[in-house]
Amino acid sequence: MIWKVSDRFGGGRPDLQIFTGETNYFELKVWPERPTKIQYFFLKKFGNRGYWIQFHSEGKHALFTPNNDWLLINVTMEELASAVVYRCFLD
User: Fold this and answer.
1) Global model pTM greater than 0.70
2) Domain extents for the chain?
3) How many helices (H) and strands (E) does the chain have?
4) Calpha distance 80→21 (Å, rounded)
5) Which strand (E) or helix (H) includes residue 83?
6) pLDDT tens profile 40-60
């Protein structure tokens, strides 16, 4: 199940939660934006189940850990979607 939890009053909660037996949390940003301090706090709290994604208008997207370590960079939307599926279902 995918749940979009972001709203104006969310106070730093990640934008998406994907439930697959375990919950994975994703913060979504459009380049050049990055997560805020409170968003980083929540992502780090979720450990290896928290990520943030940066979308770029030129189609060069990226997937990061809460520590800003990139897992994928300069990938297509299809490659990014495959990585999210892998993280949620197979990791």
Assistant:
1) yes
2) 2-90
3) 2, 6
4) 21
5) helix 77-85
6) 999 999 988 999 999 998 889
